[in-house]
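The records we work with from here on pair a chain with its fold. Each token is a code from a learned vocabulary of local backbone shapes. A record is reproduced here so that you can trace the correspondence yourselves:

_____
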Amino acid sequence: MESGNNDVFPNLILSSLPPGEIRTLHPLLESQELPANTILGDTDKPLSYAYFLNSGLASFVVPTKEGRSVEVGVAGKSGCVGAALAFGVRRSNLRIIMQVAGTGYRIRGEDLQRVVASTPGLFLRLGRFILLQSMQAAQTAACNRLHNLQQRLARWLLMTDDRVGAEFEMTQEYLAEMLGTGRPSVSITASAMQRAGAIRYTRGLMKVVDRRRLETLSCECYAAVRRFHEDLELAR
């Protein structure tokens, strides 16, 4: 990675920063391989690092004492996992786990908090991303309560397609956990969507075949979060 050259960053926050801010951040960033199921943060310990993802997908999950969990948000190459560290917040009620394997750069929490004082562009972008995540969490909570499984699965697939592309590895067990339902229900729903020509799913490999068809199967929650995200991007 060349110092000061933000063309090498697939992460959209880093790639949009002024060259001077990239030079400030460069010595503090560590390249990371992030396999699926890597825990980036958990409820029982303080956050130590923030992660700027270059690829893959991180899931923000609310776990319960009963051992169940449900997803309330996702982040990919347009975001930063642990962005709240920039503002001194080190604990969360969320488990953050790599849902789709990827790569990224990590930075120590204390370094991120220190450096934002001299990098106003980074400060602004991290604040906007946190705002986006809060909007996403609120919309996802409403979606989980009000919409059926097909709509919720279609929303999830569209959000994942936006962040990692049309094809990715994913098991039905993990989908069921993220959507707060049972594996048989996910299997039935995914099969129906496959017959409709929206997706193809074989041996743990999911592929979005027809985005337009998938959008018709989704609820309004996907479009609402997408519009909010685009508004923030335009405001940069």
Summary: Residues 9 and 157 are 25 Å apart (CA to CA). Residues 120-146 form the longest helix (27 residues). Strands lie at 30-34, 39-41, 49-53, 57-63, 69-75, 95-100, 102-108, 167-169, 199-202, 205-208. The mean pLDDT is 91.
